[in-house]
Amino acid sequence: MSDNSVSSEAKTGAPVPRLRRVLTLWDLIFYGIVLIMPIAPVPMFGVAQVLSHGHFVTTILIAMIAMMLTAVSYGRMATLYPTAGSAYTYVGRGLNPHLGFLTGWAMFLDYLIQPLLNGIYGALTIQRFFPFIPYALLAAMFVGIMTWLNLRGIRATARANVILLTIMCVVIGIFMILAVRYLFHLQGWGGVFSTQPFYDPKTFDIRVIWTATSYAALTYIGFDGVTTLAEDVVNPKRNVMLATVSVCLFTGIVGGLEIYLGQRVWPDYTTFHNTETAFMDVTRRVGGPLLFQALGLVLILATIGAGLTGQVGAARLLFGMGRDNVVPRKLFAYLDPKRNTPTRNIWLIGIVAYIGTLFVSYEQAGEILNFGAFLAFMGVNFATFWQFAIVQQSGRKRRWFADVVMPLIGFVFCLWIWLGLKMPAKITGGVWFAAGLIYCAIRTRGFRERPIMIDFSES
Question: CATH number for the domain including 87?
Answer without folding.
Answer: 1.20.1740.10
